[in-house]
Amino acid sequence: MNLSRLLFMISRRWNNLKGLKQTLQVVVILLSLILALSVFMIMRGGKYNLGHLKGCNFPAIFNFGDSNSDTGGISAAFHRLHHPNGYSFFNKPSGRFCDGRNIIDFIAEKLELPYLSAYLDSIGTNFRHGANFATGGSTIEKMNTRIFEGGFSPFSLDLQLLQFEQFKERTVELYNQGRSSYVTNSLPRPEDFSKALYTLDIGQNDLHAGLKSMTEKQILGSIPYIIDQFAQAVEKLYQLEARTFWIHNTGPIGCLPYSVINYPPKPGNADQIGCVKSQNDIAQEFNRQLKDKVAELRRELPDAAITYTDIYTAKYSLISEAKQNGFADAFGYCCGHYGDYQVRCGEKAMVNWTEISGDACSNPEVYISWDGIHYSEAANQIVAKKIVDGSLSDPPLPIDEACIQHHRLHSTNAMR
Questions:
Q1: Which of 10, 77, 181, 214 suits a disulfide with 218, CB 3.0-4.6 Å?
Q2: How many other CB atoms sit within 10 Å of the CB of residue 14?
Q3: Could you state, in chain order, the average pLDDT of each consecutive group of 10 residues for the chain (416 residues)?
C-alpha cells in the first residue's frame, strides 16, 4: 500500500470518528434537557409528573343519575325491586332495573373498583371507593307538580347533590374524630374526594316527563332551562372539590320498545330503523345543548377535566346493528308486558279478572331491552365497551385517563 493511500484511509476514519463524537454530544445534550424539564415539572407541578399521564388511578367513583345507573337507591328508599331483576348476574334482585349489571358497574370494573353501593341503602353497604346517588325515576329538573304527577322520583339531581354534600361533610368529620376501623374500611379518605371520578347520567326522565304532559314544541322550549340546572349541579360539585367529570348524554328514547309501542310512529315519523323520529330529534337537541354547555363549563372551571360521552351514538348503533351484535329483535324485550295491557317486570296485575305476572324470558342475552325501558346486561356490556375507550368522547380519552386534562391544565397554570 503506498503512502498516499494510507494517509487517505486514516483521514477518512478520523472524520467518521469526529461525526460519531458530534452525534453523541447532541444526544447527551437532548437527554440533559429532557431530564432538566422533568425535574422542573416535578418541582413546579408537585405530584403531576410524566408518569401520572399514563393513567388516573381513581380511588373512588361518585355517580349521579336515574335508573340507567341506579344500583339500589330507589329500591332502598321505597320497596325492593322484585325478582327476576338481577337474576342473570347477581342471582337475586340487586336494586338494578336490569337482569344483571348496568353501565356504571362495567365502568367500575374497568377502573378496577368495587361496584358502587347506593347512598340510600343503609344495610351492608361500603363506601370506601365511592357512592351512588342515582335513583330510578330521577330528573335534572327539580320536583314539581307536573313531574310528581307523572310518577317520577322525588330524588331529583339537586337533592342528590345535597346528599353528596352531607356525605362528604360527615365523612370528613368522622376522620377528624378518629380513624376507627369502620371509618378507614367503610368510608373514602378525605383526600379522595378531589381525586375521584364524578359520573353523571341523567336527563332521560326530563324528556319522558315532557312527553307525558307537554307538546313537542314545549319540550324543546324547556331544554335550555334543564341544561342550565345541570350546569349548576356540575358547578356545585366543583365547589365541593370535584375535578374529574365523566358526563353521558341521553340515549335514543324514540328507540325504546316502550316508546315504539306507546307512541307508534306515524307515517313520516319513523326513522330508517323504525324508531320514533320526533322523540329522537328531541333527545339529539338535548344532547347538542348539553355538549355546548359542557364546552362553556370547561372555560368557566379551568381546573376541571370534563369529558362528554356520546351514549346516544353507542346505543343507536347497537340497536341499528342488533342482529350483527347477536340480538334477535331490535325492539323486543324480555321482562313484563306492554301493549293491550301493561304489567311491569316482576310485578302482577289483574287483567279481565285474571292475575297476570310480569315474568321474564329464559334468554335475556338475546334482547337489547330488559323490560321495555332499560337495557339488558348484554346490551349494557356492549355499550360500556363502546364508550370506555374514549372513541365516543370529547376529548377522546379513555375513561382511565379522563383526569389527564386536569393534570395538564394544573401543570400549565403552575408554570405561569
A1: 214
A2: 10
A3: 48 51 49 44 35 74 98 95 94 96 98 98 94 98 89 95 98 93 95 98 97 95 98 98 98 97 91 96 98 97 96 98 95 93 91 91 97 98 98 97 71 46
Predicted pLDDT of residue 13: 52
Q: Is the Cβ–Cβ distance between 102 and 68 less than 8 Å?
A: yes
Residues recognised as catalytic: 67, 371, 374
Give the 3-state DSSP-derived string for the chain, with helices as H, strands as E and coil as C: CCHHHHHHHHHHHHHHHHHHHHHHHHHHHHHHHHHHHHHHHHHHHCCCCHHHHHCCCCCCEEEEECCCCCCCHHHHHCCCCCCCCCCCCCCCCCCCCCCCCCHHHHHHHHCCCCCCCECCCCCCCCCCCEEECCCCCCCCCCCCHHHHHCCCCCCCHHHHHHHHHHHHHHHHHHHHHCCCHHHHHHCCCCCHHHHCEEEEECCHHHHHHHHHHCCHHHHHHHHHHHHHHHHHHHHHHHHCCCCEEEEECCCCHHHCHHHHHHCCCCCCCECCCCCEHHHHHHHHHHHHHHHHHHHHHHHHCCCCEEEEECHHHHHHHHHHCCCCCCCCEEEEECCCECCCCCECCCCEEEECCEEEECCCCCCHHHEEECCCCCECHHHHHHHHHHHHCCCCEECCCCHHHCCHHHHHHHHHHHHC
Q: What is the spatial distance between Cα 327 and Cα 333, in angstroms, rounded to a whole number?
A: 11
Single-letter amino acid, residue 403: C
Place of cell 324470558: 361
Q: What is the pLDDT of residue 408?
A: 53
Provide the residue count of the chain: 416
Look up the pTM and report it: 0.85
